[in-house]
From TrEMBL:
Annotated protein name in UniProt: DUF2526 family protein
Organism expressing this protein natively: Kosakonia calanthes
Lineage of source species: Bacteria, Pseudomonadati, Pseudomonadota, Gammaproteobacteria, Enterobacterales
Pfam entry (one): DUF2526
Domain of life assignment: Bacteria
InterPro entries cross-referenced by the UniProt entry: DUF2526 (IPR019671)
Length: 77
């Protein structure tokens, strides 16, 4: 397995786990990876950035929906 394939598998795993801290740590680690070309590193980092952004949007939507449900009818239930 090539280094790029190993990195890609690690990125896949981090995204599947959905843990922002782990994705951020991997982003930083990839910044210092000299075995990858600039383009390869950028592509993997973009995958992580997109997953983090999606997770943030989903969390906000979930919290907004929860607040709406809790305050339905003008009272918190």
């Amino acid at each position: 397995m090539s280094h790029l394939e190993e990195v890609s598998a690690r990125v896949d795993e981090a995204i599947a786990q959905g843990v922002i801290a782990g994705m951020n740590e991997l982003l930083v680690e990839l910044s210092d990876d000299v075995e990858l070309s600039r383009e390869e590193r950028y592509a993997q980092q973009q995958r992580l950035r997109q997953a983090i952004a999606h997770h943030g949007r989903q969390h906000k939507e979930d919290m907004d929906a929860r607040l709406e449900q809790l305050t339905k009818g003008g009272i918190i239930s």
